[in-house]
Specification:
The protein has 270 residues and is an alpha/beta fold. The chain is 30% helix and 24% strand. It has a domain of 179 residues: Nucleoside phosphorylase domain (Rossmann fold, 3-Layer(aba) Sandwich), CATH 3.40.50.1580. β6, α4 and β7 form a beta-alpha-beta unit. Bound molecules: hypoxanthine (HPA). The site of hypoxanthine has 14 residues, from β5, β8 and β9.
């Protein structure tokens, strides 16, 4: 961790207040930053290289309308075989660099039948079904408490800020509960029916470890899912990773615009 911070500090003096993690096929936002410094993950000691298709793998630091911002373009997933600790490494590093609020984006399957492919949905809460937790093991008391509260893991205030930013571009943002699965296989229709009964509106394979680690360190989290496909069995069609990436490409410009308007507002109070 100390080596990672030293490697980043050697490249830039920027102290980001807000960070954005970009999910599958949702890249593009990093180009919005001015005076930006791009550091490939492999040049940061301890940072897990991302292997998933559609993930670029670099930390970008720069300025967005006056807001010092960090963008994590590409993330590590549990399904790639990384440990939970590796999955949250980047979040911990940017928190140590000064980040107080973090935006986690992801591609997700839509369980709630009110959603349509391509919708952007604010995550109001989560259900962790990944079978692991990045805080398991000895607690590092310098990062946060042994038993962190998760009763407001995705503060309503941040969702209000995002909705307000979205209104400016005529975009209505629904909200929902995100169920995190290990993956990498997509769910069966029976699993999706079960998740629906449990109260999930969205399903995906990321975000929750990062949200837990961020809450542990006292960061405020805003999470945005892109409904890249309807979840298994909701429609009479198979789920194809190409469809997921294709929807990501379709929605990318809207997401970039939403982030461009939301991040400076988050930074203003952070
Ligand atoms: N299930 C799990 N993860 C996903 C999905 C899905 O249907 N779509 C995109 N990520």
């Amino acid at each position: 961790m100390e080596q990672a911070i030293a490697a980043i500090r050697a490249r830039t003096a920027i102290s980001p207040r807000v960070a954005v993690v970009l999910g599958s096929g949702l890249g593009g936002f990093a180009e919005q930053l001015r005076e930006r410094v791009e550091i490939p993950y492999e040049q940061i000691p301890g940072w897990p290289p991302s292997t998933a298709v559609g993930h670029a793998g670099r930390l970008v630091l720069g300025n967005l309308d006056g807001a010092a911002t960090a963008v994590l373009a590409g993330r590590a997933h549990l399904y790639e075989g990384y440990t939970p600790e590796q999955v949250v490494f980047g979040v911990r590093v940017v928190a140590r660099l000064g980040v107080r609020r973090i935006v986690l984006t992801n591609a997700a399957g839509g369980i709630n039948p009110d959603y349509a492919r391509g919708a952007l949905v604010l995550i109001s809460d989560h259900i962790n079904l990944q079978g692991s937790n990045p805080l398991a093991g000895p607690n590092d008391d310098r990062l946060g408490p042994r038993f962190p509260d998760m009763s407001e893991a995705y503060p309503e205030r941040l969702r209000d800020i995002a909705r307000e930013a979205a209104r400016g571009i005529g975009l209505a943002l629904a909200e929902g509960v995100y169920a995190a699965m290990l993956g990498p296989s997509y769910e069966t229709p029976a699993e999706i029916r079960a998740l629906r009964v449990l109260g999930a509106d969205l399903v995906g394979m990321s975000t929750v470890p990062e949200a837990i680690a961020a809450n542990h360190m006292g960061l405020e989290v805003l999470a945005i899912s892109c409904v890249t496909n309807m979840a298994a069995g909701i429609l009479k069609q198979k789920i194809d990773h190409e469809e997921v990436l294709e929807t990501g490409r379709m929605v990318r410009a809207t997401l970039v615009e939403l982030l461009r308007r939301t991040v400076p507002r988050l930074a203003a109070e952070a």
